[in-house]
Known about the structure:
This protein has 929 residues and is mainly alpha-helical. 65% of the residues lie in helices and 5% in strands. Helix 21 runs parallel beside helix 23 and helix 31 crosses helix 47 (897-911). The protein is globular, with a radius of gyration of 32 Å. GO terms for molecular function: adenylate cyclase activity; ATP binding; DNA binding.
Amino acid sequence: xxxxxxxxxxxxxxxxxxxxxxxxxxxxxxxxxxxxxxxxxxxxxxxxxxxxxxxxxxxxxxxxxxxxxxxxxxxxxxxxxxxxxxxxxxxxxxxxxxxxxxxxxxxxxxxxxxxxxxxxxxxxxxxxxxxxxxxxxxxxxxxxxxxxxxxxxxxxxxxxxxxxxxxxxxxxxxxxxxxxxxxxxxxxxxxxxxxxxxxxxxxxxxxxxxxxxxxxxxxxxxxxxxxxxxxxxxxxxxxxxxxxxxxxxxxxxxxxxxxxxxxxxxxxxxxxxxxxxxxxxxxxxxxxxxxxxxxxxxxxxxxxxxxxxxxxxxxxxxxxxxxxxxxxxxxxxxxxxxxxxxxxxxxxxxxxxxxxxxxxxxxxxxxxxxxxxxxxxxxxxxxxxxxxxxxxxxxxxxxxxxxxxxxxxxxxxxxxxxxxxxxxxxxxxxxxxxxxxxxxxxxxxxxxxxxxxxxxxxxxxxxxxxxxxxxxxxxxxxxxxxxxxxxxxxxxxxxxxxxxxxxxxxxxxxxxxxxxxxxxxxxxxxxxxxxxxxxxxxxxxxxxxxxxxxxxxxxxxxxxxxxxxxxxxxxxxxxxxxxxxxxxxxxxxxxxxxxxxxxxxxxxxxxxxxxxxxxxxxxxxxxxxxxxxxxxxxxxxxxxxxxxxxxxxxxxxxxxxxxxxxxxxxxxxxxxxxxxxxxxxxxxxxxxxxxxxxxxxxxxxxxxxxxxxxxxxxxxxxxxxxxxxxxxxxxxxxxxxxxxxxxxxxxxxxxxxxxxxxxxxxxxxxxxxxxxxxxxxxxxxxxxxxxxxxxxxxxxxxxxxxxxxxxxxxxxxxxxxxxxxxxxxxxxxxxxxxxxxxxxxxxxxxxxxxxxxxxxxxxxxxxxxxxxxxxxxxxxxxxxxxxxxxxxxxxxxxxxxxxxxxxxxxxxxxxxxxxxxxxxxxxxxxxxx
Length: 929
């Protein structure tokens, strides 16, 4: 074997440059993909050596197949083995999480990494990352972008073959967002150089012809040359190597057997006996498997290591490569393999190995062992279902493969597996397995449970119609358990709400509440939140608040799974509709804390969505854009794509308000791409943002065509103007612009009824008056709208009413019009609504008055490099430049860390910098405070 890396100069140079950047304070990641034996591990070791030589700490670990069900073990193992050792990660020791939920562990890990990286650059290396555990995979999706501004470099290697494993999905996710290092086979010159390095001599045509059968795979070449040397079929004469003999290896397996054949019988038995193990082993384990005493193995171990088949590292002994390992394992006969696996299972149990590892050995130890394995797999799946649903699903799939088709209880196992696959967002697999079981015929209770899993899977994927159909089929089953019935009603309520069937949604929400209140409070809470959504969509704002408040009180009182439904998200939504903004903000803040503590990651994107809506209402557009951007990033990290669609809709609206139509179009394209996969969302979250973009592009007729259903159904479905009162005058303006007074009148009448139904709402009263004033050109209605909006905290709604009042008053009362104009302009500038301000200037800029806002003028004195930053971005930049971590900045600014991440990404982009060190230098140079 040779330690020199041949044929990978380009890859090594890339890694060295990246590590040099990390040493200077820049973070980032690299994904290395390739087939087994292509040289990934060698490159990882070389990168680690280079980093350590350049004073970059290195945390490295190889992921193992059986660690997949052990939450965070891959990352914890790497960081606890950090060199030099780091006390910051000591809390990650097994059994000492210190937190109540897995997402909280990720949050704490992020804080530890930010704190450590502030003192020293860090390289994190994960080999065989396709096997990493599910929580580590989720953590890496969260941490890689979150720590992009810190000197943390991630280097992950895995096989290029696609799998359902969470680790491979994360590798692919990162590869799609960067430029992966794809290792290919060696070319002919590199192959020749490798042969010369291995043999210490020039090589002739016989050697090159022999290794050509290895297809340029470095490991296969090295193993072949090792076999030829050990069997003395390589002759070196006059500095040139030649192949001699007739009995030459014909395959990789043959080369491994040839190397084995040169060892003593006892050394061969050592290697074969330990081949049943999937992780490094110690001498005591090898002795147990061989039926020997440890003291007698030292010479045998030296012999095996000298052959290159085994290697020794800090964790013990291991096979030099998986391909070699597998080739030797395949030489075991059935009886011997069963005996060794049974012994390995006992050893794994004694050493406290993961249950999945014990069960895997039992599955290969004979019929009795397989039966015990199935029981263990089911128990293990149940224990990790919350923290690692994908790993739990894989455990159940293993158990299903080991169980006869006619085995009692198999259908219940399928139902459980479908639910786990759904929770892991493996929707196609869940549906395929579930449909297969349904075709086989099930008794009603089992069928209902299975259909519940399918409905939850479909709802998670945003396939609301399919979710509703599965739920309806489940509810039609006779004599099903009340908890299952309650959960089916709750899923049905939310699915039908997004299918615009409000009556059915409200009925199902009521049934979920009634059925689940005593036995399944989580379903009752979820049903009540659906009723809150329906009430708000129908314009019954007090009812929306009442249902959400009841759900929140029930969750607080009963705890457990009810809290995991996070009713405060919908409570904040109802409070926002009622203009109770401070209360809504407190509800969102507490909801975010609960989600982090409980580890319910799915709630985070939804919290960002409703936070963005609140901030838009308050005219804080920079913060709203950061919230929505953070929500999109997080939803995609979690593969919760159904939440990505409404968040993208929000970003489209914000981009239009801020005057960036190019960015709005990019968000539109991403939304269209997602919806083409079958994801559905409320029309208010899709059609209305697209209509605002089309209108801003100068096509009001196209905008009206796109949302004509919103106009035509606004009497019985006033959802848009309830959730977004600013849309009321916008709808009227569009219709009036193209001469469609009928649709404009319909909006005005609906807005008036909505305001009458909610007499305490100044916002709805203002929106109704604004719409009427626009349609009928009645200045007194616009003045009424202005008066109503002054009683709320909705500056954009007020600015638009002021603008329209200025337009109608500029002839009759020029002084009042100038005052209206100036105030509107000031409000829009303060909010960062550049697009709205441009429309104001285009319509009324010919007589703009004397009070052009100072904020719109160039800053006095020399321009600053920080001028392009928004006020929110500047706040974040100044705090981070002092050395504060993102999490600490988030605490000080009362923001989510993801929102701070979003602001910081924009700061780096605008200032064209790549590290916190550069940011600190800019701030110092500008003398900013």
